[in-house]
Amino acid sequence: PLTFKDGTTLALSCMADYGAPVFPFLAVGGYTGQDFSAAEALLLTFSLNNYPAGDPRLAQTLLWESRFLEVMRDFQKRTAGTFDVTFMAERSLEDEINRTTAEDLPVFAISYAIVFLYISLALGRYSSRSRLLVDSKITLGLGGVLIVLGSVLSSMGFFSYLGVPSSMVIIQVVPFLVLAVGADNIFIFVLEYQRLPRHSEESREVHIGRVLGTVAPSMLLCSLSEAICFFLGALTSMPAVRTFALTAGLAIIFDFLLQMSAFVALLSLD
């Protein structure tokens, strides 16, 4: 209808039920000129009352949207070849993020497992094949990977506690980023520990302290420079980039602190 009340037998109004006008160029498409009745596309919008998080009525709205998506998927299958049907709800984006996150978990697990095996085997000094498990650094490899994972989770948990929303980029990128930085520090520390011999009169604690005096400053400067770069990136006005930069920078700091405490203890036990 192009007038307040259409002149046809249907006598349709151009006003929607909520009182706003429904413009033809927003509701239909695929027409030529002003012949809106020849449109080949139709856009339908179903408006629901939304509620803030924590409101019990929000669960009912989410349930309605979930059922709506199920009905539309079934309708899309039944009309395949006749109509091209596309649809989405307000929860569709969050549902898709949860789905892709679940699909990425095996990739994360495989990546961390490969790095664990590489660290365990590369740091070992082998005298024979029979002593492979003894000479390999399984404890250090496992501990190093767990420290990296713990630093990422600690950073995400800290900002979640502050109410800073997370994003898909954080889950996909930050674990691999911190893993690369953490593995590099592990190799620097352990290889320097193996290179510097332990003096006959010094204890293991003194030996590790001497090694830390050599490599810890470079590890500190490396971690600080990378963290500062990320924190500078948090000055951007884009919320997703700001959250990513804050999480990555804090995760690198947590990783360094855990390596200077927990990983040093693991090295002394190994």
Automatic annotation (TrEMBL):
Compartments in which it is found: Endomembrane system
Entry's Gene Ontology cellular component terms: endomembrane system
Organism domain of life: Eukaryota
Residues annotated as domain SSD: 104-269
SUPFAM superfamilies: Multidrug efflux transporter AcrB transmembrane domain (SSF82866)
Family, similarity comment: Belongs to the patched family.
Protein name from the UniProt record: Niemann-Pick C1-like protein 1
